[in-house]
Amino acid sequence: MSQSSPNGSFRVIGSRPIRPDGVDKVTGRALYGADYALPGMLHGCVLRSPYAHARIKSIDITKALKHPGVKAIVTAEDFPEVKGVMAQVGELTVNTHYLSLNIMAREKVLYDGHAVAAVAATSRHIAQEALELIEVEYEVLQPVMTAEEAMKPDAPILLEELRTKLMEHRTDPGSLEGPDRASNVPGHIRFERGDLAAGFRSADFIVEREFTTAAVHQGYIEPQNALALWSPDGHVTIYCSTQGSFNVRTLTSSVLCIPEGTIRVVPAEIGGGFGGKTTVYLEPVAALLSKKSGRPVKMVMTRGEVLRATGPTSGTKMKVKMGATRDGKITAAEVWLAYEAGAFPGSPFAPGAMCTLGPYVLENLRIDSFDVVVNRPKVAAYRAPGSPASAFACETVIDELAEKCGIDPLEFRIRNAAHEGTPQPAGPPFKKIGFVETIEAIRDSDHYRSKIEGPNRGRGVAAGFWFNGGLQSSATVNIHTDGTVSVVTGSVDIGGTRAVQAMIAAEVLGVEMDDVRALVTDTDATGHTDVTGGSRIALATGMAVYEAAHDALTQLKARAAKLWEKKPEEVSFNNRTFNAIGNGVPPLTLKQLASRLARTGGPVTGRAALNAGAIGAVGNAFATVCVDVEVDPDTAKVRILRCTIAQDVGRALHPSYVEGQMQGAMAQGIGWALNEEYFYDQKGVLRNSGLLDYRMPTCLDLPMIEALIVEVANPNHPLGVRGVGEVGIVPPMAAVANAIYRAIGVRMTELPMSPPHLLKAVLERRNLAVTEAAAAD
Amino acid sequence: MATVVIPALLRKFTDGKDRVTANGRNLGQLVDDLERQFPGLREQLIEDGEVKPSVAVSIDGDMGTAGVLEPVRESSEVFFLPAIGGG
After folding, report:
1. In this predicted complex, what is the ipTM?
2. How many inter-chain contacts (A to B, CB under 8 Å) are there?
3. What is the reported pTM?
4. A348:B84 CB<8 A
5. Which residue, A139, A503, A627, B24, has fewest beta-carbon neighbours within 10 Å?
6. How buried is residue B48: exposed, middle or buried, by Cβ count under 10 Å (0-12/13-18/19+)?
7. Could you say which of 3.40.50.12280, 3.40.50.150, 3.40.250.10, 3.30.365.10 is the CATH number of the domain covering A22-30+470-611?
8. What is the pLDDT of residue A168?
């Protein structure tokens, strides 16, 4: 049952109705990918490399094929060799050759866990037994595991064809950039303006520091899965957990070299994605196994496979130098960023560079950012890709500059804050934004005004910026004869977007929320819809639903006009009723009008399909956070005492879900700050491929996160909406680092700030103090 | 004439200039004019007659979606940026 309350000029928008998918999810009735089954189904498992870097000398599947219950085995030989084409797939720019190699290794394995073969059998256990019968001969090579190592001139080369190129990844040797020699650095971009040297000369204080951050996983609860059915007529149906069913269709088509139109993707309910499910891993493999066996094949990753073989976000190496005058104006900034891409090109080195320092007015800057391949799983998107790491570096330096200037860190940010018209780091000017408002919300909050007292306790603040996506969405709004409404889109619902779409339709059509049902459908049943990611669904698909509802309304007015023998322009819709302008005809509700659709022309379906714009300038997002910590002086464990996030959301269509996005992003940022990292041994083998040892925060680790919604309407959206899903993860790591500094006087430049790392820094500082004291004596 | 801001690493094609002007009613014509003035620049931005998938274009603060057909005005300010994705 919905619980509506008026919100200004809106009846439904801005209220907090209960999500329509909630009951099924909490009772276990919701169908996730692993719940699907088909008659005659086989189970698929993947054989994965035990080495981080090795040549494949041979693969012998003879014994495995003979194992009872095994129905099909595939290796790279079963996949077509895909040319290296850069394809635009929604918000992704994908090299299809490298995508194919990531799904199934050919000639070389490039990370511990890299897929080498896959088996379909009558049970999962038989499939796993068969994996052990596949004989693979490797020539082990030396792995390179960090950006710093990979960028050295004598580093082992992962991919012989890679050359350093501006803004993209190329495999054609002898191209324009630099010497024609193999490199582990396929991409380099630079943003530069003003006079850096003059800017530093005019600074009263200069801070220069180096930073490293560890790769972290998105940490979705639900592992990747796929159930594929390859029909004898050449059509393939794939049921899977994905953020983008059209992405799965396009990428599977690219990998298998089959027409997109022969692939139907049915998205299941999704147990988290955060960017990690915008690409494909199992889908093409399951499809090929189904083709070979003639039966449906289901594959579900284990948690170990998720951590070993699906994209985390990048680890980084960063250098930041910034200068400011004593009255708190930043005069120059020089930033050097290296992002680990994993085994194939494609880290978020570009958005990381475009976002860092985005919140600030900067006349003199240079930002260099590099894409670096290493022997780790190929990275995938993770909530504001690239921005959290670069913000950790720059927001820490800004905090240090504020301290040197003797200025409150929030006030320092206000003095340098970007506003409408300020050039972004990459150059284009911001449109209307609400950054200052988020700082002010924190400054005026009960949290920031409260005192923090007690030993080893400190408070830190930080800010962050992220783009939002527009891209393509389609929507259909169907008016049923009983006056109920169904809203049909292809946007997978990760964060409550079905509820929001129902709210938009209810608002426009003047019906109750309970009378609207929002559905997510497959790639054959709806128009093209880009991925659920880039904070775009409420914005772009919401826009499509809004337009589709208005399209339905226009048709309904025409039907009312027909009933009343008037022209459509003589019918108005207000106060939730259709009214004939000018005379005393009784108004009609939508419910009353719907019962008469058959005799006035037939069903009414509103439609909309749009491209809401590329990722970039579609309602940019800002957040400011404040964190209080306490550091145990003996164990260096950090306890989060209180945390608050303020974010400009444009307009909160459903405040509870907006707050949920802010809180979730903050929780992930804190996990990134304090605990999460991959432990690889000297051979490049992952040692913590389970959630016991890959430590993410739970509800026991965090206090209630206070979410302050700031609304500065996005001028590019009919409802003022900005994307909300991502920017909240950008500031927390720096805020926690700044809080630790104020608690114990140690400035951390390495993530995570877990007890071993923090204790090491504390002891080093103590030893330094002892040494200095002894020297003074 | 529209103002085009040249990416830092492509300024070797424009003798170090970060801002240049060019004519064109749409992006494709603009790039053609840039190529006439600064040979070699088009290959960095255009592939098979369309804006490269790895390149995004901002015109007057809006991210274009029409590629080479994107309209450009006399007073437009044009940026060529890396294409990016979200999570």
Report:
1. 0.94
2. 134
3. 0.94
4. yes
5. A139
6. exposed
7. 3.30.365.10
8. 45
